[in-house]
């Protein structure tokens, strides 16, 4: 399941400091030159102004991103980097950027580093930073903040922690957003103890704790299975200035559901409603997954109805998760109902689950014949979508059609199956041949036998026996003899042999006498 996380992204973390710096998304959403678009999900960088520090800051005024000139410059840099990326390798890009006389101050390079991180050119960003001394420039606090985030983007948390330590040793005060990004990155990798150390460091440096940073820790604790600690931390937030939000509850609910405590997760959902907060689709999807893991599929379906009560529209993930749970625990009729509802709403059903539904319906159709048509409808829907139907689903469908005496559809599906390059099991051909012979369609049965041989299979004795029997019955001695000889040539010895039709032989003798 993908949760909208409470992780620090450009929407939450990039808090304004002294200069009231806006979010970088303001920049990203305005950067759309020709075919270059910067997607907000990749932008986890904040270049906030620093708090006063012993080191003199000389580039502060240039870091106000509400300034139109700054936005235009960043936009131009991102466009330029994107252009260079399409025509040069990383080494050439670095050489071109190094020789540019435009970058003369730390502020200039901060803008460049920020644009490189936005463009996900992280290796070049690190190379440019390493070469700052050659330009007789000293990194400032904002430079270090960018590099911390750059390392987080590269998933190199140890380097990010070292970059933070370096900044602190130099007397800089990285903004709270930078700390939160680091905390989140540590939590995503299960290093919750290190994340706590960073969180405590925030307090020692005089930063006010934020709900966002707390949410990162809640999610980290839940991720590593320390659910009781996460629950205790959540309860401790209540009644304080850091009142938990829906993301706080969602993080703990996810942890509870993953360890088989979905009932407690439901209690937290009730608490969210009592507190006047609006539960989101992520919370409900978390519950659905939890109930499914615990073998409570009907409660998954009940959560869908609960969502409607809270004016929360189930999404494709909600329905597919419910459908998966119902199929996993063999609640086939309920699964069929959810599938029909999804089709009615125009939602896309996972093709693997459609295949599972077809097979389960085919199995049930032996006792309830009406389900065979439902299975065939889902089967046809898979093909209409252009989905590649797997061999097992084809085989089960063909066999079920034979049991249901729908040999025309079975024969067509079998031909289609071979045409797709599948090699059906011999038993599948046997069932079609037996069924066709039972309906007096021995010629179609022989065609099926030829199809089996063409697909590289060797017909079984059962197929030969039933066809020779039918040919004997129809008095087609020559065809029966040919079929018998073909069987012997393949090493198959049928139990039945061609025989003269007795009545036909007697009539022949009388004709000759006369």
TrEMBL record:
Coiled coil: none
Domain of life according to the entry: Eukaryota
GO terms, molecular function: mRNA binding
Keywords from the named record: Repeat
Signal sequence segment: none
InterPro entries xrefs: PPR_rpt, TPR-like_helical_dom_sf
Placement of PPR repeats on the sequence: 140-174, 175-209, 210-244, 245-279, 280-314, 315-349, 390-424
Homology family: Belongs to the PPR family. P subfamily.
PANTHER family found in the cross-reference section: PENTACOTRIPEPTIDE-REPEAT REGION OF PRORP DOMAIN-CONTAINING PROTEIN, RESPIRATORY COMPLEX I CHAPERONE (CIA84), PUTATIVE (AFU_ORTHOLOGUE AFUA_2G06020)-RELATED
Protein name: Pentatricopeptide repeat-containing protein
Organism (species): Phaseolus coccineus
Phylogenetic placement of the source organism: Eukaryota, Viridiplantae, Streptophyta, Embryophyta, Tracheophyta
